[in-house]
Amino acid sequence: MSGPISHHQPDEESPNDAVEAPVTEDQKAQMEQAYAQMRRKLRMTRLAEDIGHKIMVLSGKGGVGKSTVATGLALSLARQGKKVGILDIDITGPNIPKMLGIGQIDLHVEDSQIHPAEGPHGVKVISMAFLLEDPDKPVIWRGPIKLGAIQQFIGDVAWGKLDALIIDFPPGTSDEPLTVAQSLPNIDGMVIVTTPQEVALLDSRKSINFSKTVKIPVLGVIENMSGYTLRGMTKPNSEISVMGPRGVPIETTSDENGNWSVSLEVFKKGGGEASALEMGVPFLGSLPFDPGVVRGGDDGVHRIVADPESDVALAFDRVVQNLMAELDNSKDSAPTIL
Ligand SMILES: Nc1ncnc2c1ncn2[C@@H]1O[C@H](COP(=O)(O)OP(=O)(O)O)[C@@H](O)[C@H]1O
Ligand SMILES: [Mg+2]
Predict the structure, then answer these.
(1) Where are the domains of the chain?
(2) Measured CA angle at 49 (ends 132, 124), to 5 deg
(3) Which residues are close to ligand 2, an ion, with C-beta < 5 A?
């Protein structure tokens, strides 16, 4: 026999060498990718089963208090004994951890799953902020990388069993809510936060249209920074006059203990309710303007935690009650699969 002799090592395990072409590095990588994607999809489905309600919080524009409301909803629910998680998807300005007093931490990773941090009342928190080296440095992630990171973020977090997951987004109806809407199965709906001014309302109408595009129902509109209550004390049963916005005096009378209060419409009032009505979506309630909310946001002690009996904390409880009623409603109207 002439020609080269193939030298097989006797201990080499390749009985099928003769019939199967060797797997290339490229194919291997492709297979691994496909496998990882399948695993992630499976996790998403499991996740959807483990989480009772998935609620997206959106706003037409920034600064209306969306993140404050998202954390407030989570805390109010948790205070009622519910197991709650909050997912902060705002890559450019992730501020939920700060609002909940959670510093820059290293997330615990086990079995290739990320374990959320824990905030007040046991609220579980996952934020893009945890991934940033310096949370004060804005990050510019290119589109596909950002969206890939979001998908991974949703699929790879070990939330455990939750009654509700609140998802906070950057302002507007950008790629982020779209990606979440397309990746996470069985989202209950979206809550739209607005302030009473016309511009904010106009923007919130865009969010309502967005909901139609992605076919996720609007659970309702919340009007934030709606009125500011001024309180004071004087002689019992006396007449008080306070200079309101545009110089219009507001009259009131103190009670038998001398306490009085007037509500000032800082940014007007009632616009959120009117626009909800106009768009045919539920109105979940309004939250007052409260300087303590700003301090709480900066100090990392949410107003609900610092003063659970404050007007704004009680207003959050009412909004949550309405939200739960809406969730029950939408569950009833969904087709039952037997
Ligand atoms: N009801 C409120 N009363 C007073 N200040 C508020 C209220 N809601 C939000 N804020 C303040 O407004 C600012 C913007 O709120 P934030 O939740 O970060 O808005 P967004 O997420 O919509 O950009 C923060 O300083 C926050 O403390
Ligand atoms: Mg925000």
Answers:
(1) 37-225+281-332
(2) 35
(3) 66-67
What is the whole-number distance in angstroms between the Cα of residue 55 and the centre of ligand 2? 15
**pTM of the predicted structure, to 2 decimals:** 0.83
Report the nearest-CA residue for atom 19 of ligand 1: 65
Q: What is the pLDDT along the chain (338 residues), one digit of tens a residue?
A: 444 444 445 455 555 555 677 888 999 999 988 888 788 788 888 888 899 999 999 988 888 899 999 999 999 999 999 999 999 988 777 789 999 999 778 788 888 788 999 999 999 999 988 877 776 666 666 677 777 778 877 888 899 999 999 999 988 767 888 888 888 888 999 999 988 876 566 666 777 788 888 889 999 999 999 888 888 889 999 898 888 777 888 888 999 999 888 877 766 666 778 878 888 889 999 999 998 888 888 888 888 888 899 999 999 999 999 999 999 887 665 544 44
SS (HEC) of 75-121: HHHHHCCCCEEEEECCCCCCCHHHHCCCCCCCCEEECCEEECEECHH
Cα dist from 211 to 189, 220, 279, whole Å: 8, 11, 12
290 Cα to the center of ligand 1, angstroms:
10
Q: Which two tokens stand for residue 79?
A: 């205070």
User: Which ligand neighbours the alpha carbon of 266 most closely?
Assistant: 1
Q: Which of the ligands is closest to the CA of residue 64?
A: 1
CB 166 within 8 A of CB 86: yes
Among 294, 299, 310, 311, the mutation site with the greatest number of ligand 1 atoms within 8 A of its Cβ is 294
CATH number for the domain whose boundaries are 37-225+281-332: 3.40.50.300
